[in-house]
User: Which sequence fits this backbone?
């Protein structure tokens, strides 16, 4: 997964935060983002800043994602795109390619190990409690 967000007044926008807030915390006992690989990038209209990518890293950790070490931030983004909306050839473009290549590498490296990396005692315990309660109810209904 790649998240690229604009920075406004030194932080991610409220719309972007609301979008993230609408992700379900659990789906069948597991977070839908859990174990996924994440790359973070931001664009800003002013000077270089890393506030939004730092926030995205925190949110990625909260969503139990593996955030790659590399990141990208494009300052004065309005100057970096051509008339067709494509990013011009520049060090920013090169950095984005680096980030996306790293995302692919980390995804390939972690995908086959995701089950072990996201296995949590607390979640196994909660699943066992639900299973035990269901078995108890089933035994009571047949008795």
Assistant:
């Amino acid at each position: 997964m790649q998240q690229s967000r604009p920075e406004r007044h030194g932080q991610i926008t409220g719309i972007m935060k609301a979008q993230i807030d609408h992700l379900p915390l659990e789906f069948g006992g597991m977070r839908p983002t859990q174990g996924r690989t994440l790359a973070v990038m931001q664009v800003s209209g002013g000077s270089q800043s890393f506030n939004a990518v730092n926030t995205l890293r925190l949110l990625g950790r909260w969503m139990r994602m593996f955030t790659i070490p590399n990141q990208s931030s494009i300052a004065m983004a309005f100057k970096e795109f051509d008339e067709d909306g494509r990013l011009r050839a520049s060090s920013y473009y090169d950095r984005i390619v680096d980030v996306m290549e790293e995302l692919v590498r980390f995804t390939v490296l972690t995908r086959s190990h995701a089950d072990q990396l996201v296995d949590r005692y607390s979640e196994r315990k909660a699943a066992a409690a639900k299973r035990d309660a269901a078995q108890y109810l089933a035994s009571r209904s047949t008795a």
